[in-house]
């Protein structure tokens, strides 16, 4: 599983982003997106296009963790969202690894059709590991734990007297903490 | 690799340490060159303890000296008074000093409620049980301010919460504090009798409302009684967009 | 047990506060209160300066050298003797004397009494003077004085609208002072 995590201010200004891969079931923590050439901007594009869904869901559901809210089938990208009470959005894009049967150059339409139905997950290696199934309760729970841990560090950032709302988070310590949370839960 | 450096970094991000991480901002004008971060001169204290190493609940039950707060607040009022054009201007400045505090307190408040609620939340995969909900309607928001926020700030709930009785102003709500802590030692001169330094607290409330997505203007007004000479009413005026959303959510049955 | 009135004099001798709590004294005109404040300030300064100092030799157990801090002699506490690095010659002229109560500077006039009232003076470290007019028989004036000082520190000094050395116009100070004295009576 490869991940792209971003924090957006209430006015949609990107405050922080990071790409990383799973560290579970032997993963090395390195992001391997399906379409490496375009991943850099496609990930951002996909994540930002899910903002409309977030804004709709945020007034229907008072939870901070909104769970999996959006899917972009062509890239088999799943978006999970977490809202802080002060309106910052934590968005996590997760992309399951390509099936072993798929060759490296598989077309987008093919992988998309595979994943459109949720039954597609059964064909994948056992859904027990967090990394394998992006919509399983285990994954939801792992993402929740990850989000909660990032939230704690985000609150610490916000409480800094040198931080104002809407400022980019540049702290390398914060980045390290997010990486560690990713390694721990995802 | 023949690819540009930042692409390479994007593709193979090692998690060995924060230095090797790279990220890109969406807006091309604002690139985040995180790889150059160590050279940005972020200084870490010699004992390696950053704000991220401190627990947020550490000072939770700590008490603050009332006198030092009083002196600090007196200096804040004096600072705000420099080159003001009038009482309204002074109140606006106090309000602006409180506003960022409200935004921060909101996150801290939720973090603390989250971590204090029993940590058995691990078992429940449905998150509805454990963490507190964000307020979606005006009433839960007002209860949040009246209760938890006031307790966080002043160690007691506010004294009253009312809705405007006038049909013309359904967007007005009032929170009463009989003896605001910030005004304990303050005597406003007669020529400024309209001034209420609790405008600072009004700013905090405004920050909380705005943070939650409820655009509002909050002002502090003197309403002395025989028993409570310092009684202050915080008047919350919610914006039209909030009132419209309130109607939609009411129809949708959102609580 | 009546507290008649309170006067506060700033460190320059100006009247910054005058208030009557119970009738019993004849009222003065505002101008006379100002004169009273200034006069008292002057008399107080004179009483301070005529307070005699005692030569160091008069104190039993004089230290061998004034700089040795090992001997727990009371005059070590007086700043003049500890701060002089050269022991013998200069301490005889500058630090060779001390106040009757070593370590405590001369306070000057502390009370005046007639058969109708007693005036008690308390001076803060910053030179502000509180004059309290009470019945001559009243006991525990220091308790009242301490509370007045506390209320002053709270409701005057913590008030952002109070300018130092200027007349005290703090409604909360008046209210709390009145309330506390009434509660006592």
Q: What attributes characterize this protein structure?
A:
heterotrimer; A: 186 residues; alpha+beta; Beta-Lactamase; 5 helices; 5 strands; 20% strand; globular; C: 185 residues; two-stranded antiparallel ribbon
Radius of gyration of chain B: 23 Å
Secondary-structure element string of chain A? EEHHEEEHHH
N/C terminus separation of chain A:
9 Å
Overall 3D shape of chain B: globular
Task: Provide the domain count of chain A.
Answer: 1
Number of strands of chain A: 5
Report how far apart the termini of chain B are.
56 Å
Question: What characteristic shape of chain A results from the CA principal axes?
Answer: globular
What fraction of residues of chain B sit in β-strands? 5-15%
Weakly predicted, low-confidence segments of chain B: 1-39, 118-129
Gyration radius over CA of chain A? 16 Å
Biggest sheet strand line-up of chain B: 1-2-4-3
Q: How helix-rich are the residues of chain A, as a percent range? A: 25-40%
Short description, anyone?
Helices cover 36% and strands 20% of the residues of chain A. Chain A has 186 residues and is of the alpha+beta class.
What do you see in this structure?
The complex is a heterotrimer of chains A (186), B (255) and C (185). Chain A is of the alpha+beta class. Chain A has one domain (2-185): 2-Layer Sandwich (Beta-Lactamase), CATH 3.30.450.70. Chain A has helices at 36-49, 51-57, 108-116, 137-159, 172-185; strands at 2-8, 14-21, 65-72, 77-83, 89-95. In chain A, strand 1 and strand 2 (14-21) form a beta hairpin. Residues 101-129 of chain A have low confidence and may be disordered. Chain B has a domain at 66-114 and 134-252: Muramoyl-pentapeptide Carboxypeptidase, domain 2 (2-Layer Sandwich). Chain B has six helices and four strands. In chain B, strands 1-2-4-3 form a four-stranded antiparallel β-sheet. In chain B, helix 3 (87-116) packs across helix 5. The longest helix of chain B has 30 residues, at 87-116. Chain B is globular, with a radius of gyration of 23 Å. In chain C, 22% of the residues are buried. Chain C folds into two domains: 3-50 and 106-184, Beta-Lactamase (2-Layer Sandwich); 57-98, no CATH class. Chain C is of the alpha+beta class and 185 residues long. Chain C has a five-stranded antiparallel β-sheet. In chain C, strands 3-4 form a two-stranded antiparallel sheet. Mean pLDDT of chain C is 80; it is low at 62-94. Classes of the chains: A alpha+beta (186), B alpha+beta (255), C alpha+beta (185). At the A-B interface, strand 2, helix 1, helix 4 and helix 5 of A face helix 1, helix 3 and helix 6 of B.
